[in-house]
Every structure is written in C-alpha cells, then in structure tokens.
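Q: Hi! First time doing this. I have a protein sequence and I read that you can turn it into a structure. Is that right? Here it is:
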Amino acid sequence: MHPSPKQKSTLIVAALACGLVHATAAQADGNNAAKIKRGALLVAAGDCVTCHTPFKMGANGPEKDMARGLSGHPEQLKPGSPPKLDGDWNWAGSATMTAFVGPWGTSFAANLTPDRETGIGSWKEKDFVQAMRTGKHVGVARPIMPPMPWQAIGQLPDSDLHAIYAYLQAQPAVKNKVPDYAPPANATAKAGGGKNPG
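A: Yes, that's right. Below is the predicted 3D structure, encoded as structure tokens:
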C-alpha cells in the first residue's frame, strides 16, 4: 500500500516538525550549557566558593568541603561568642570562613544550592537578579549583610546575573539550614528583644 500525496505531505510536515523541535531543543540545551559555563566562570572569578563552602580537615590541613559546595555555613556548627572587636580590628571570620562578625552583627554565608527548603531552589531568576541589585534577601526581605559583595555583583549586566543563577541552579542541592543573621549586641539591647530584620 502506497501513501496518497496528501498522506505523503502530512508525513513530510510531521517529519520536518519533529526535526525542528529536536533542533530547537538541542539549540536551547546548547544555549543553557553556554549560560551555565559562563556562570561557572563568573562564580569562580567572584570566588563565591571561599565564603559559601565550609572547610573540612584534609590530609594536608584545612580544605574546602566540595561535597557541601556552596551550601553556606553548616547548620550543625553553632559558633561560640565572637572575638572582641575594636577600631583597628573591626571584623572577623570563623574558622570555616562561613560566619562573619562586625559592626553589622553576625552574618552567615547563605546556602546557594538549589535545595528548595534551605537554599535558593524556590527562587525565580527575577528574585535572584532583584536580590543582587537591591541587596535584599529574595529581592524584597531583610538586607543582605556584609561581607557579601552584592553591590559589586549587582553592577553586572542582566545576562551575567542570569548566567550565575543558571550555574547555581545546576549544582547539586544540599540541604543545609543556615543560622539566621544576628544583629549586634548593642542593637539587640536597644530593640529590646533582638528580633532579626525582615
């Protein structure tokens, strides 16, 4: 049995449509791969791993724990009292390089992995861009505290921020609830309770 000219036309159109869909999907995958690659370059250049990945003890001393890459300050690690600061030494970092204290209070490196509960997995791309542009958590909530250099990152073009977001979303999700920001002791005393902003 031979297909009619109309059936042949339908088959040709269907085959072309499948080919175009496949080509478009492949092109989209290629574009996303290029975006993720660009994001990886920007994350490396920004040295995000230094603050957002905790240390572990390795064979040659402290090293970054890449199994917890970009997951922020370890939730099980409760830092003790921070050192006394003065005018000459006005900020300090923890041994894990994921907690910091200064005139702003105590801040903890955020979980940047795509875990939906404890990381940025539920953030939309626009939330990430807004956060980097405004210095507000999810673009609308509490301030992003030092030493996070959101002011510099926020100067990047949209395409670079989209690339960073794509790279972060492509990383393994790590469940790790980072402690809440703690305001400075003098602000806590003045506020009469020490509730976190935002």
